[in-house]
Amino acid sequence: MTPKLTSVEEALCCVPDRSVIAVSGFNLLTTPEYLILELFNQYRRTGHPKELFFIFETLPAVPGRAFDKIAEIIYRDKDYDFMRGVLAPYLGFSPWLQKLTSENIIEVYAWPIGITVYWFREIASGRPGLLTRIGLGTFLDPREDMGAMNELAKERKTCRTSIVYINDEEYLFYQAPKPDVALIRGSIADEMGNISLADEAIRGTVLNIAQAAKAMPKRGVVIAQVKWVTKTGSINPRDVDVPAPLIDHVVISPKEYHWQSGSFEYDPRLSYRVIPPINIREIGAGEIERYSEHEHIIARRALIELASMVIEKGKPILVNLGIGIPALISWLAAYEEISDYIISVIESGVWGGVALSGQDFGAGISPFALTTMPDMFTNFEGGIIDTAALGFLEVDKEGNVNPSMLPGRIYGPGGFPVIAGGSPKTIFTGSFTAGERKIYYDHVNHRLVIERDGSIIKFVEKVYKKFFSGRYALKYGHEIIYITERAVFRLSPEGVALIEIAPGIDVERDILSKMRFKPVISGSLIEMDKRIFTKTRMGLRDEVLRGLKR
């Protein structure tokens, strides 16, 4: 029995007041839920540790579990001494953490996932922070909000960004306090304390979080939650994700606090012990049906754009598909039988296969590769991917995009700023308006009918929060397209330009009158491809194959 294997009480008693605690977890994937809940229980019993500051790689929670459960108790009981602040890339799956944020009870910062996971690597290497172009001209820029999600964060500046010039070029420098403690999760520990993530759905940032805590100048403590302990030497060295010298304590978790994802305690497909052949059309039938007709129109137009890129490049393309309408694109690609030419990658490190959604987002079935999250975000920030298809909530006259935030709706940036900021081509997809609406295609008269339009304008004078900068996209030569059910726009040096309209659409009545700014009207304005308004196959497979033979 290794001395590193301890009770949860013994492991957590070493956490002092006012510690900075790094926590792994993408929803419930690699989330050390047992350690999180027991740390809070210890505080409730003894009053210590208190005034903690947490740094998350993403968000170790889904509604009602892990960190969201703690946030709920803190909010309901008005017991605010446990936690003084959080750096969390995403708040969407924690409604109670959103309440603590919006009511200014704790200081909350939101850096993009890619920035946070890179930051762990930089701190682990003994560097003072992370230098990058990502975030310039957005809410992450110190000339705007500096990534602060509320007034308390703006006042305290525990996490901050600053402008740095290199060869007269602007960069952002991200700084946050070094972790004193790391709470991580693996599947198995051997008697030495080597940790394997063999049954986890992703590899995450677990190793880098442990290294960041252990780095100089002040060596911290690393506590690992596992499900099993095995004999020394029984884990293949290739399967050791965190070597024993980086681990101080190993705690065995009850199975109810060690779920693979939000909906699964355990599924062998998510640990890749079973890699089934995938009939995506069969799996995706329910997914495809839950989208509205106008969302299908948007996704099919985006898919035509991707197919054109395959033909243009003469080979398969590497694509990041976001949540919402972009997720529908992957199902429609399968329906069109061109999935082999559109290779999708997601933030958690999954390459190919079928990406799950909702509380299980981040996990995939039958991928062909699985990398760490920092390695995956290198593909995004470095422009290694060919394109990204992402959703939008608001677009303004400069082409800036807000994907998720409104007053009272505090989701945070997630992976969006790094993906959109690094991709050489980004396809933003979304409904033209929001709110209750009835839009359909009249197959008899071959026109799009807007029987009832949404009352909420999405093309605005200025976005509420800027997560993507049109000005910097143009500066770095990125191609930007905005696709809706009635119009397609392209970002140009002159501004957002209208380039396509749906059949039967009146430009003044259905487009310009529903925008808060006037777009540039292309002299070569064309009608959107009629194929996207049907539910039959668009013939993209034959089109791609012919194009690749040229």
How is this structure best described in words?
By secondary structure, the protein is an alpha/beta fold. It folds into two domains: about 250 residues, 3-Layer(aba) Sandwich (Glutaconate Coenzyme A-transferase); about 270 residues, Glutaconate Coenzyme A-transferase, CATH 3.40.1080.10. Helix content is about 25%, strand content about 25%. The chain has an eight-stranded mixed β-sheet, sandwiched between helices. A seven-stranded parallel β-sheet has the order 6-5-2-1-10-13-15, sandwiched between helices. Helix 5 crosses helix 7, helix 5 crosses helix 12 and helix 10 crosses helix 11. The termini are far apart.
Give the arrangement of secondary structure elements.
Blueprint: H1 8-12, E1 20-23, H2 33-46, E2 52-56, E3 61-62, E4 65-66, H3 67-77, E5 83-87, H4 95-102, E6 107-109, H5 113-124, E7 130-132, H6 151-156, E8 160-166, E9 169-175, E10 181-185, E11 188-190, E12 195-196, H7 206-214, E13 221-226, E14 228-230, E15 249-252, H8 280-283, H9 285-289, H10 293-313, E16 317-321, H11 325-335, E17 342-345, E18 350-351, E19 354-355, E20 364-365, E21 369-370, H12 373-381, E22 387-391, E23 394-396, E24 401-402, H13 416-422, E25 425-429, E26 433-434, E27 438-442, E28 447-452, E29 456-457, E30 459-460, H14 470-475, E31 479-483, E32 487-492, E33 495-501, H15 507-511, E34 520-527, H16 540-549
Parallel strand pairs: 1-2, 1-10, 2-5, 5-6, 10-13, 11-14, 13-15, 16-17, 16-22, 22-25, 23-30, 25-31, 33-34
Antiparallel strand pairs: 3-4, 7-9, 8-9, 11-12, 18-21, 19-20, 23-24, 26-29, 27-28, 31-32, 32-33
